[in-house]
Write a structure and sequence with these properties.
Length: about 180
Amino acid sequence: MDWAAYFGVDIDELEFSQRFPLSDNPDKGFVGDAHGSWGQIPPHPYGVHAEPVAVLLRTYGLDAQAVRNFPLDALRSEIASGRPVIVWVTGQVALGTPVPYTASDGSRTIVARYEHTVTVIGYNSLEVRILDGAQVYTRQWSDFERSWAVLGNMAVVMRPSKESAPSHYVHPSKLPL
Protein backbone atom coordinates (compact mmCIF):
# COMPACT_ATOMS: atom_id res chain seq x y z
CA MET A 1 0.00 0.00 0.00
CA ASP A 2 1.73 3.13 -1.29
CA TRP A 3 0.18 5.59 1.19
CA ALA A 4 1.45 3.62 4.18
CA ALA A 5 4.87 3.14 2.58
CA TYR A 6 5.19 6.91 2.23
CA PHE A 7 4.96 7.10 6.03
CA GLY A 8 7.49 4.30 6.49
CA VAL A 9 5.14 1.35 7.00
CA ASP A 10 5.23 -1.58 4.57
CA ILE A 11 1.83 -3.23 4.17
CA ASP A 12 1.17 -6.13 1.85
CA GLU A 13 -1.83 -5.04 -0.22
CA LEU A 14 -3.37 -8.52 -0.42
CA GLU A 15 -3.02 -9.06 3.32
CA PHE A 16 -4.47 -5.61 3.97
CA SER A 17 -7.51 -6.20 1.78
CA GLN A 18 -8.20 -9.54 3.46
CA ARG A 19 -8.27 -8.01 6.95
CA PHE A 20 -11.39 -5.89 6.45
CA PRO A 21 -14.55 -7.03 8.20
CA LEU A 22 -17.25 -8.03 5.72
CA SER A 23 -20.48 -6.05 5.66
CA ASP A 24 -23.21 -4.92 3.30
CA ASN A 25 -22.43 -1.39 4.52
CA PRO A 26 -19.22 0.09 3.04
CA ASP A 27 -18.97 2.47 6.02
CA LYS A 28 -18.52 -0.56 8.29
CA GLY A 29 -16.62 -3.12 6.21
CA PHE A 30 -15.83 -4.51 2.81
CA VAL A 31 -18.90 -5.12 0.63
CA GLY A 32 -18.80 -8.14 -1.66
CA ASP A 33 -15.93 -9.97 -3.26
CA ALA A 34 -12.77 -8.04 -4.11
CA HIS A 35 -12.62 -10.04 -7.34
CA GLY A 36 -16.23 -9.32 -8.32
CA SER A 37 -17.23 -7.22 -11.31
CA TRP A 38 -16.25 -3.57 -10.96
CA GLY A 39 -18.90 -0.89 -11.18
CA GLN A 40 -21.57 -2.43 -9.00
CA ILE A 41 -23.22 -1.01 -5.91
CA PRO A 42 -24.08 -2.73 -2.63
CA PRO A 43 -25.13 -5.29 -1.75
CA HIS A 44 -23.20 -6.56 -4.81
CA PRO A 45 -19.36 -6.46 -4.94
CA TYR A 46 -18.41 -2.86 -4.21
CA GLY A 47 -15.54 -2.15 -1.86
CA VAL A 48 -15.12 -0.12 1.29
CA HIS A 49 -15.32 3.49 2.40
CA ALA A 50 -12.89 5.61 4.42
CA GLU A 51 -13.70 4.72 8.04
CA PRO A 52 -12.88 0.99 7.86
CA VAL A 53 -9.71 1.84 5.90
CA ALA A 54 -8.56 4.31 8.58
CA VAL A 55 -9.39 1.85 11.37
CA LEU A 56 -7.35 -0.87 9.68
CA LEU A 57 -4.44 1.49 8.97
CA ARG A 58 -4.31 2.37 12.68
CA THR A 59 -3.72 -1.32 13.49
CA TYR A 60 -0.45 -0.95 11.54
CA GLY A 61 0.57 2.00 13.73
CA LEU A 62 -0.45 4.77 11.33
CA ASP A 63 -2.38 7.70 12.77
CA ALA A 64 -4.95 7.63 9.95
CA GLN A 65 -8.17 9.63 10.14
CA ALA A 66 -11.25 9.16 7.95
CA VAL A 67 -12.93 12.39 6.91
CA ARG A 68 -16.00 13.36 4.89
CA ASN A 69 -16.84 16.72 3.37
CA PHE A 70 -13.12 17.44 3.47
CA PRO A 71 -12.58 20.97 2.14
CA LEU A 72 -10.49 21.41 -0.98
CA ASP A 73 -8.25 23.90 0.84
CA ALA A 74 -7.62 21.29 3.56
CA LEU A 75 -6.66 18.75 0.88
CA ARG A 76 -4.23 21.24 -0.64
CA SER A 77 -2.84 21.97 2.81
CA GLU A 78 -2.19 18.28 3.45
CA ILE A 79 -0.36 17.89 0.15
CA ALA A 80 1.61 21.12 0.63
CA SER A 81 2.63 19.82 4.07
CA GLY A 82 4.04 16.67 2.51
CA ARG A 83 1.22 14.30 3.46
CA PRO A 84 -0.42 12.42 0.56
CA VAL A 85 -4.16 11.86 0.92
CA ILE A 86 -6.26 8.81 -0.02
CA VAL A 87 -9.48 9.98 -1.69
CA TRP A 88 -12.64 8.25 -2.96
CA VAL A 89 -13.53 9.03 -6.56
CA THR A 90 -15.44 7.35 -9.36
CA GLY A 91 -13.51 5.49 -12.03
CA GLN A 92 -10.16 7.03 -12.84
CA VAL A 93 -11.41 10.39 -11.61
CA ALA A 94 -14.44 10.38 -13.89
CA LEU A 95 -18.00 11.63 -13.63
CA GLY A 96 -20.28 9.61 -11.41
CA THR A 97 -23.66 9.69 -9.73
CA PRO A 98 -24.27 9.43 -5.98
CA VAL A 99 -26.75 6.69 -5.07
CA PRO A 100 -28.48 6.65 -1.66
CA TYR A 101 -28.17 3.19 -0.10
CA THR A 102 -29.71 1.62 3.00
CA ALA A 103 -27.80 -1.31 4.50
CA SER A 104 -29.49 -4.27 6.19
CA ASP A 105 -28.93 -2.66 9.61
CA GLY A 106 -30.95 0.38 8.50
CA SER A 107 -27.98 2.73 8.27
CA ARG A 108 -27.80 4.97 5.22
CA THR A 109 -24.87 6.06 3.12
CA ILE A 110 -24.04 7.23 -0.37
CA VAL A 111 -22.49 4.79 -2.85
CA ALA A 112 -21.51 5.14 -6.49
CA ARG A 113 -20.81 2.86 -9.40
CA TYR A 114 -17.08 2.50 -10.08
CA GLU A 115 -16.17 3.67 -6.57
CA HIS A 116 -12.38 3.82 -6.46
CA THR A 117 -9.57 5.04 -4.23
CA VAL A 118 -6.57 6.99 -5.46
CA THR A 119 -3.87 8.92 -3.64
CA VAL A 120 -3.40 12.63 -4.23
CA ILE A 121 0.34 13.30 -4.26
CA GLY A 122 0.69 16.78 -5.73
CA TYR A 123 -0.95 19.68 -7.47
CA ASN A 124 -0.46 22.99 -9.21
CA SER A 125 -2.93 25.74 -10.08
CA LEU A 126 -4.41 23.75 -12.98
CA GLU A 127 -4.10 20.08 -12.12
CA VAL A 128 -4.02 17.51 -9.36
CA ARG A 129 -1.41 14.71 -9.47
CA ILE A 130 -2.76 11.25 -8.68
CA LEU A 131 -1.16 7.94 -7.80
CA ASP A 132 -3.47 5.09 -8.86
CA GLY A 133 -1.77 1.75 -8.31
CA ALA A 134 1.30 1.78 -10.55
CA GLN A 135 -0.02 4.71 -12.60
CA VAL A 136 0.63 8.37 -11.96
CA TYR A 137 -1.52 10.84 -13.88
CA THR A 138 -2.97 14.32 -13.65
CA ARG A 139 -6.52 15.59 -13.87
CA GLN A 140 -7.90 19.09 -14.17
CA TRP A 141 -9.06 20.41 -10.82
CA SER A 142 -12.65 20.74 -12.04
CA ASP A 143 -12.75 17.07 -13.11
CA PHE A 144 -11.18 15.94 -9.85
CA GLU A 145 -13.59 18.01 -7.74
CA ARG A 146 -16.66 16.61 -9.53
CA SER A 147 -15.49 13.01 -9.16
CA TRP A 148 -14.42 13.43 -5.52
CA ALA A 149 -17.74 15.12 -4.63
CA VAL A 150 -19.79 12.08 -5.73
CA LEU A 151 -18.91 10.25 -2.50
CA GLY A 152 -18.90 13.36 -0.33
CA ASN A 153 -15.25 14.44 -0.49
CA MET A 154 -14.29 11.34 1.48
CA ALA A 155 -10.64 10.86 2.37
CA VAL A 156 -8.10 9.30 4.70
CA VAL A 157 -5.49 11.69 6.04
CA MET A 158 -2.51 11.26 8.34
CA ARG A 159 -3.15 13.15 11.54
CA PRO A 160 -0.15 15.40 12.06
CA SER A 161 1.44 15.65 15.47
CA LYS A 162 0.66 18.90 17.25
CA GLU A 163 4.28 19.94 16.87
CA SER A 164 4.24 19.51 13.08
CA ALA A 165 0.75 20.73 12.25
CA PRO A 166 0.85 23.89 10.14
CA SER A 167 -1.12 26.81 11.55
CA HIS A 168 -3.67 26.55 8.70
CA TYR A 169 -4.33 22.84 9.33
CA VAL A 170 -7.97 22.07 10.16
CA HIS A 171 -8.26 18.95 12.31
CA PRO A 172 -10.78 16.52 10.76
CA SER A 173 -12.83 16.42 14.00
CA LYS A 174 -13.65 20.10 13.44
CA LEU A 175 -15.12 19.45 9.99
CA PRO A 176 -18.86 18.96 9.43
CA LEU A 177 -20.00 15.40 8.77
